[in-house]
UniProtKB/TrEMBL annotation:
CDD domains: P-type_ATPase-Cd_Zn_Co_like
Positions of region (Disordered): 1-30
One GO MF term: ATP hydrolysis activity
Entry GO terms, CC: plasma membrane
Transmembrane segments annotated in the record for this chain: 38-55, 67-85, 97-115, 121-138, 270-290, 302-323, 605-623, 629-647
Entry EC number(s): 7.2.2.12
Designated name of the protein: P-type Zn(2+) transporter
Record's subcellular location: Cell membrane; Membrane
Keywords: ATP-binding, Cell membrane, Membrane, Metal-binding, Nucleotide-binding, Translocase, Transmembrane, Transmembrane helix
InterPro entries linked: ATPase_P-typ_cyto_dom_N, ATPase_P-typ_P_site, ATPase_P-typ_TM_dom_sf, ATPase_P-typ_transduc_dom_A_sf, ATPase_P-type_domA, Cation_Transport_ATPase_IB, HAD-like_sf, HAD_sf
Catalytic activity: Zn(2+)(in) + ATP + H2O = Zn(2+)(out) + ADP + phosphate + H(+)
Family indicated by similarity: Belongs to the cation transport ATPase (P-type) (TC 3.A.3) family. Type IB subfamily.
Length: 652
């Protein structure tokens, strides 16, 4: 069977042109053909073969012999054999002398040369049938990914000067206003202008529950408007939308090969020339050792050996297995950047996680404001609000929501973020510090309280080298966080929480969830040290966080998992795995998909090697015919393909 390189980058071409091409010299233009049309050459060949076998064995006649018989079998061979002969010729022109096409061509032409016409036709017939099943399996495996490509409409309704006009989505510019009717899909990312809206985000997150949005919130390409007509102001170009980035991520996923897949490819390149040499030796060597040596008998054994030796089951089913795993994951809102990460995540023994935005909602609310004597609360908070507007941290959002509109009269100078500490700037010629109490310690600001005695997350404020007061902010635990911890423990995964938040807050969250170990009050470099300590035990580690602030830890971990891929472009670029809907329960699902994918791949490897080894020995010894060879090649390949696509039907 022909080797198919499954390349998702062909999908966008297929959507419009209906064809796909692979770099193995074998072009498949089957997407516009019906199943009947794909099987038609095999049906013609099968009909002619059955008639020929009947005339040979069951129907008494005296005309089906000599050149008539040969021409009939050649006619049966041509519909299924000619495409393979053509591909064998093309691969030889590209200096690939030991392709599957070459093996099948030599084996079947050899069968004709020694008068085994029925078997020569049968081998190529079953090969052709297997080829069609393979194409159907690959097309089916692509379905989950292809649905993503269909999420964006080609046309959208733009409103200008109170006039609606339908235009190509690609031509829409940033700042244009799109009108979206109930049931329509959004074509580009934008900001909701209507007071409220309800959207189906299943295409992006795998989550079918409607997502309510309010005026000013971001809505993304691929979302479906569920209720009343809404208007959306475009904020991102068509090619730069979150969905475009997700599609690019998934389309490139198969370029990152798993070690097993890379090994099998290298193995096939070495293995195929060796079996061709062995087939030659099977034909020639017995001449020197066997008294009643018959050339046609030993050539037949060598041809059987060649048919058996085709590594189709491995070359096809293993990439298809990984591709199925990537498809199953994307269907559930989990994006793998490569099949290699499916392999790695299946062996994870430790999951190290951030707290804020990973196990908690990351939606902070200001609980209380404590100001020192001599500092006006309104004036101080206005300066804090202005400085926090420089940050995208959830804390900044909480302060903005609490204080209100930013005072444009306040001027900031030399504003900067100090990693792991907070923000600083000059306001009215005096230094303003907003962050944790470590920030105040760093700048030698004195304060008369114990930060450890405050339960909630604390934002300290200093102005003009004096402690001005603090805000307390609280976050809530995600509704499926408990389920996530339970599922990970069921997989025998150890959990560690690392956070820059106060230690007593971190310990409280860890205790509520049942997380094994937790450390709070950590700077980015402290997190790196903690992760190194875990890795020093020679155990695999996955880190779950935002993929941006924790970049050093993500780089050090075996697998970096980002929560909230829809919220951060940098997250998609940094992480190895992206969980689109922020649900920590998907961490266990990702590990489970990796385990099931690896299990199926190894089932196929063992099946293919076991059957081929047995039939190769039988073929070399003359105990296996072409029919057993067909099963060892096409039969095992079909079984492996069916096993590979099974993962897409699994519930995780």
């Amino acid at each position: 069977m022909a080797k198919k390189k499954i390349d998702l980058r062909d999908l966008s071409k297929e959507k419009h042109s209906g064809e796909h091409s692979h770099d193995d010299g074998h072009n498949h233009d089957n997407s516009d053909k019906t199943t009947l049309q794909m099987f038609l050459p095999a049906i013609i060949s099968f009909t002619l073969l059955i008639i020929a076998i009947a005339l040979d064995n069951w129907i008494t006649q005296n005309w089906f012999n000599g050149w008539v018989r040969i021409v009939w079998y050649v006619a049966a061979y041509i519909p299924v054999g000619l495409p393979v002969l053509r591909d064998a010729f093309d691969s030889i022109r590209k200096s690939d002398f030991f392709s599957e096409f070459f093996l099948m061509s030599i084996a079947t032409i050899g069968a004709f040369a020694i008068g085994e016409f029925p078997e020569g036709v049968a081998v190529m017939l079953f090969y052709a049938v297997g080829e069609v099943f393979q194409t159907l399996a690959v097309q089916r495996a692509k379905t989950n990914i292809k649905t993503l490509l269909d999420q964006r409409p080609d046309e959208v309704t733009v409103v200008k000067d109170n006039q609606s006009k339908t235009v190509k989505a690609e031509s829409v510019e940033i700042g244009d206003v799109i009108q979206l009717k109930s049931g329509e899909k959004l074509g580009l990312d934008g900001e909701l202008l209507s007071e409220k809206g309800s959207f189906n985000t299943a295409a992006l997150t795998g989550e079918s529950k409607p997502d309510s949005k309010e005026k000013g919130e971001i809505v993304l390409a691929g979302m479906i408007n569920l209720n009343t007509v809404v208007q959306v102001k475009v904020t991102t170009a068509y090619k730069d939308s979150k969905l475009s980035k997700i599609l690019e991520l998934v389309q490139n996923a198969t370029s990152q090969k798993a070690p097993t897949e890379l090994f099998i490819r290298k193995f096939a390149k070495i293995y195929t020339p060796i079996v061709v040499l062995l087939a030659v030796l099977i034909t020639v060597v017995p001449f020197f050792f066997v008294q009643d040596y018959t050339f046609s008998k030993w050539l037949y054994r060598a041809l059987v050996f060649l048919v058996i030796s085709c590594p189709c089951a491995l070359v096809i089913s293993i990439p298809l297995g990984y591709f199925g795993g990537i498809g199953a994951a994307s269907k559930n809102g989990i994006l793998f950047k490569g099949s290699n990460f499916l392999d790695v995540i299946s062996t994870i023994k430790n999951v190290v996680m951030d707290k804020t935005g990973t196990m908690t909602e990351g939606v902070f609310k200001v609980q209380e404001v404590i100001m020192q004597p001599g500092f006006d609360e309104k004036t101080t908070l206005a300066m804090v609000n202005k400085l926090e507007s420089q940050s995208t941290h959830p804390v900044a959002t909480a302060i903005h929501n609490f204080v209100g509109e930013i005072d444009s009269k306040i001027s900031l100078e030399n504003a900067e973020e100090i990693a792991g500490h907070g923000l600083r700037a000059n306001v009215n010629g005096k230094e303003l510090l907003v962050g944790n109490f470590k920030l105040l310690d760093k700048f030698s600001i004195k304060y008369d309280l114990d930060p450890g005695s405050i339960v909630y997350t604390t934002i300290a404020i200093a102005y003009d080298n004096k402690f001005a007061g603090y805000l307390t902010i609280a976050d809530s635990i995600k509704e499926d966080a408990q389920e996530a911890v339970s599922k990970l423990h069921d997989l025998n995964v150890k959990l560690t929480m690392l956070s820059g938040d106060k230690d007593n807050v971190v310990q409280l969250v860890a205790k509520k969830l049942g997380i094994d170990t937790a450390f709070g009050g950590l700077l980015p470099e402290d997190k790196v040290e903690k992760l190194k300590a875990i890795k020093s035990k020679n155990e695999s580690v996955a880190f779950v966080g935002d993929g941006v602030n924790d970049a050093p830890v993500v780089a050090l971990s075996d697998v970096g998992i980002a929560m909230g891929g829809l919220g951060s472009d940098a997250t998609i670029e940094t992480a190895d795995v992206v969980i689109q809907d922020d649900k920590p329960s998907k961490i266990a699902m990702a590990i489970n998909i990796g385990k099931q994918t690896k299990k199926i791949v190894w089932q196929n490897i063992i099946l293919a090697f076991a059957v081929k080894a047995v039939v190769l020995v039988l073929g070399a010894g003359g105990l296996a015919t072409m029919w057993e060879a067909v099963f060892a090649d096409v039969g095992v390949a079909l079984l492996a393909i069916l096993n590979a696509v099974r993962i897409q039907k699994m519930k995780f």
